[in-house]
Design goal:
The protein is α/β, with parallel strands linked by helices and 158 residues long. The chain has one domain: Dihydrofolate Reductase, subunit A (3-Layer(aba) Sandwich), CATH 3.40.430. Helix content is 20%, strand content 36%. An eight-stranded mixed β-sheet has the order 5-4-3-6-1-7-10-9. The two termini are 17 Å apart. The structure holds NADP nicotinamide-adenine-dinucleotide phosphate. NADP nicotinamide-adenine-dinucleotide phosphate (NAP) binds next to strand 1, strand 2, strand 3, helix 2 and helix 4.
Length: 158
């Protein structure tokens, strides 16, 4: 199984504020949908709360320490390890956040789908530092919207 991380991350590693995304970049949301559709997506409970619903055409797996938590349309596990056990026979599985789950999953991941947002916003959740010596860039596309310039960047573990 290939473990991939998909994240929109600012220059200062910011990814979230007040349990929400910092920006709205519609091409980024489209790319997220295209890349993750048909696959399992694994997320922390706060990220699920922030999205507010199960994302269609994907197996939604939520990580939470809460016992007896039941949410329609999603699977709930109490560790990343259990989420990975559930998906071990799949070809590619996506970690979609947030900060705590990214930090735990980064050492295990072999592919990163980054949207590098070229700004330094205030934030309360950050992506862990990526040691670029451990990764090779396999794709880069520079883009801009009215509000942001950003780059779609794929990294594969060396
Ligand atoms: N920019 C992006 O691409 C992106 C993507 C996703 C999310 N985000 C942002 O990230 C922020 C949310 O991230 P976050 O770090 O605050 O929360 P999170 O990682 O989404 O969720 C944290 C929750 O996950 C559960 N959890 C975490 N580690 C666990 C473990 N080892 N075992 C069992 N359960 C565990 C706990 O749930 P319980 O409290 O239920 O026990 C914990 O409170 C939001 O601002 C969101 O918008 C940004």
């Amino acid at each position: 199984m290939n473990l991939s991380i998909i994240v929109a991350v600012a220059t200062n590693n910011a990814i979230g504020r007040n349990n929400d995304l910092i920006w709205h970049i519609s091409d980024d949301l489209k790319r997220f949908k295209k890349i993750t559709s048909g696959h399992s997506i694994i997320m922390g409970r706060k990220t699920f709360d922030s999205i507010g619903r199960a994302l269609p055409k994907r197996r939604n797996i939520i990580i939470s320490r809460q016992e007896n938590l039941v949410i329609e349309g999603v699977e709930i596990v109490n560790s990343l390890k259990k989420a990975l056990e559930l998906t071990k026979d799949e070809t590619e599985v996506f970690i979609i956040g947030g900060g705590t789950i990214y930090a735990e999953a980064l050492p295990l991941a072999n592919k990163l789908y980054l949207t590098e947002v070229h700004s330094n916003p205030e934030a309360d959740v950050f992506f862990p530092e990526i040691n670029r010596k451990q990764w090779k860039e396999t794709f880069r596309e520079n883009c801009s919207s009215d509000d942001y310039s950003y780059s779609f960047v794929d990294l594969e573990r060396i």
